[in-house]
User: Fold this.
Amino acid sequence: MTESDGFGRALALVDGVQGWLTETQARALYDAARAVGPGGRIVEIGSFRGRSTIILASALRDGVELVAIDPHGGGDRGPQEIAPDAARGDQDHSAFVANLARAGLTDRVRHMREMSYDALGALPGPVTLLFVDGAHRYKPASDDIARWGDRVPVGGEMLIHDAFNAIGVTLAQLRLLVTSRRWRYEGRRGSLAIYRRTSLSAAELARNAIAQLLELPYFVRNGLVKVLLLARLRRLARLLGHRQGDWPY
Assistant:
């Protein structure tokens, strides 16, 4: 089976699974996970109902560990669903478990149903690939990027969802990554930003900062589209490139 066939199968497995990962982003996530060699570890922060988890698990090579961290507390599900809701969280958890089982991938995933800051102490050791898609508020997003990012060794990758999109995530990027010598920005797929752990020279640092700052017009555009959609001004949103049925991701 070719890599293309493998991704096509993974994409079929997430058909109907609720989540906000686009096909282009799923491809980037699949390729990053597939590149992790035996003995490596992938950590996902924020699994929701398993859409991204299934993509990651489908790409695993033998000898690679996948840890999915999500408290399934029913909060931080969207702008109108910030507060925890136990019943809603249990529904998400049940859907997550059922979706993994239906995909035949339960045995490939270690699920930690707890907050990411609690899981940090319970899961020692390096992380080859980190996927950050937890709470999008500034403080938890900053903590996930900083604390879990410290676990990624040189050469490893960190992918961040809702980058240059959600306000809290974008502010965390601006504070922690734009002027960091440790993370090279390698571009984005929609709102999925890709970083590689490295050591940047002074000249590389300047170019790296500029590359990220040049994404701010995308952030502003997404903010305007969201305002227009919430105001039901869809025609104006289309003038900014919005496609019907999509939310800016």
Q: What stands out?
A: Strands lie at 41-45, 65-69, 110-112, 129-132, 157-160, 183-189, 192-197. Residues 86-103 form the longest helix (18 residues). The first strand starts at residue 41 and ends at 45.
